[in-house]
Amino acid sequence: MHADSHNSEETSEFLLAALEQAIDAVVIIDGDNNITHFNAAAERLWGYPRHEVLRRNVSCLVPVHIQAHHNGYIEANRATGIDRIVGTSREVKITRKDGSEIWGALSMSRVAIDDEIIYMGFVRDVSVEVRQREALALHALVASRTTRMVLVTDRERRIAYANDAFFRMFGYSASESIGQLPSELLAGRYTDQATLERLRRQIELGNDVEEEILAYTKSGNEVWISAAISAVSDGQGELKNLVMLLTDITEGKLLQSLQRHVLEALALETPIRDVFDMLCRRVEIIAPDVVSSVLQVDADGLIHPLAGPNLPAGYCQALDGIAIGPDVGSCGAAAALGFPVLAQDIATDPRWQLYKDVPLAAGLQACWSSPIKAKDGRVIGTFAFYFREPRAPNRWHQKIVDACVHLGALAIEREESRSQIARLAYHDMLTGLPNRAHLRQLTEQAIQDCPVDEHIALIFIDLDHFKDVNDTLGHSVGDELLVGVSQRLLGQTRPGDVLSRLGGDEFILMLSNCDAEGATTIARRITDVLAIPMRLGGRTVPVSASMGISVYPDNATDIDSLMKHADAAMYKAKQAGRSTHRVFSIDMNVAAEQRLVHVTALRSAVAQGHLKLHYQPQIRTDGGALYGVEALARWHDPVLGEVLPSKFIPLAEECGLIEQIGVWSMREACRQIALWRNAGLDVPCVSVNLSPLNFHNANLAAVVAGVIRENCLPPETLMLEITEGVILDENSAAVRTMDAIRKLGVGLSLDDFGTGYSSLSRLAQLPIRELKIDRSFMNNIEVDAGARAITTAVVRVGQSLKMSVVAEGVETEGQRSLLAELGCDVVQGFLYAPALAPADFERWLIQHCAAQAYTLLREVGRALSAAQLPEKTLARVSAGKPSQ
Questions:
Q1: Which of 100, 397, 572, 761: CA 20 to 30 A from 171?
Q2: Does 11-126 carry CATH code 3.30.450.20?
Q3: Mind listing the pLDDT tens digit for each residue in 402-436?
Q4: What is the pLDDT confidence band of residue 1, given thresholds at 50, 70 and 90?
Q5: Is 363 left (phi over 0), alpha (psi -120 to 50) or beta?
Q6: Kind and range of the H or E element at 371?
Q7: CATH homologous superfamily, domain 256-423
Q8: What would be one Pfam family of this protein (predicted)?
């Protein structure tokens, strides 16, 4: 007996020790419902230390609202033995010592020992699980209520969850969907396997993807969906789930397809009636409840049916030629009023009273018509939906109509433009004159029809200095000039003559039955009529032209040769001083060939680096110090010899090399400055001329920055000279380029200021650091009050805008002295030196610096003499010797 008692005690101790180590909370109550055991897990769960609860009634551990009844529940169980809670697990709310509430999973055991019934409760904290379950329930509720389709797949990519929107769209039930692969469940005849494979690869990489996919419903209907797919990984980085949000984009795809077919038909020049017939048929496929039609409205406001493939025979013809008006059915009213008109019941709608019998007889009971408008707002047609029952359109109908009205406008305007397109193919868009192609046709026909004893003359007309107008006043003013010139030239034509614009500033006048003498007379008249200045852009602009004349059959018998000879004669006129004309002679072919030789040689010189830079010094007027140099391009050709800049620079502009020469000049000038500085020669600044074309290059600032960086030069070392055309250019890219160059610290100099059409307000807004007075004002500045006044004005402008002013072409001391008196900062010209090769400039600079030093010493000597110093000291100073 003693042994049994001992074993029982050992067993009890073992069980209590085991319960103490349990991860679940364990609470034991005796027959009086008092707590006899409260393990460590229970302390953690309730937050009570065990000494505060042992031997207390168990009701202290239950929520307040059931404490009063708790003992009764237990006693009832003891008395009846009905175990509704014993042997089961349920979730209960637990109130902790600090008042917070958690969820616990409670299971109870009921044990009878020595006629005493005790209870043992096991509780596990399930708060996290409860919260997760509630969150999942909330998410499921949201997913079930959203209009977007939601799919969640498991590790095997099979559907684990789908919301109601998915079931409604695709027609599958939950049992038919769960456990299926989406790629198989939604596949059909035209499923794009390549797209699905691309998606699989991205998903395997753990990437979120979005794609438009063609899917199929249970009944086999095509559905376009936009799929946004996100991968969910577990704690080990393995792909656990895919969450897919699917959006129905079928309507948008159908409209895209409709638009694509119509645009393709227009691109193929399909006749307009066929285009609209196809449009109506496709609309009726995607909206089977409508009958569609298209009407065109002409300039007189009359209706002309274009399409209505399913309207009754004769119905469209009955509408042809009817005038639009507010009471002319839905279509006539929409065209007249300019907004959509809906007749929900044709039988009773007042707008249809005069026309209702025909549609009603065909079973059409409602009509909704929308105007088709051109870009300028004109109503050029209507697009209508007829319905077979009284009703209004729905949202899908509205989307279709919006697309079709736009497509209809494109198609009708294209039809209206066909004649205009045909005209533009043979006429210049700006002036309306025949273009080169039309001139060729007309001239070839004229040559073919020309009697043996008659002549045909061509006058090639090229405007003088037109590029300057474009560069300084802008292209809009240039266009205005071309239109004005074309009107004046037309005034000099005779019946049978043809005036054509070839492009740019070039015109050709074909004179029928006209020899060289007659063409010369007309050319003189053209010179006279063009000599009258034009008022353009608020300014009076002089106009002139150089003209070349060739005659059939004297100079050539085909159009190409006639134009070539007239072109050669025109260049001779330009060489003769412009604003004149020349008749072609055989020796002009030689001149044209020489020009071609020069162009070819120049291209070779640029490509092979045969151009050189010479440097002309710029001198400060207040003391004679070196201000900087201007880099000027020089070309010596092995065959042609020395080619003057006045010849090869215009040639470079004509043949498209000027931009390349500008960049080369900048690179070479900066390289030379760096060499001089490394050799100890102080050249403060170098000016480089750039073409307006350079400033249209968005990469210019980056190129400039690279050149400065490569040569380790401070940015203020470089000054870029620009023409007035650049600052007047309305191209915002040129302005941005100038601003970017200013931000680099590189200077901008406005060349030949005062000779063009610079706007002072525009000048003040731009990052210009220097103004250059054109050399043309220097010739007579000492005697010509006008030249002196302009120079003074330029200096004052520079001073007011805090810009340096440089005068070019200074050749006499009198000019320099006057400029200094006017306040001009810097002069350059033959007074000091011409443009010099680098080695010659180095020698000049050394001599100039020595002369500057000698002058300075002489001035110091005179100052000391005035101070009455000893004669020996004065002698040393005057001789440039230091005192002992």
A1: 397
A2: yes
A3: 999 999 888 888 887 776 666 767 888 889 899 98
A4: very low
A5: left
A6: strand 366-373
A7: GAF domain (3.30.450.40)
A8: EAL
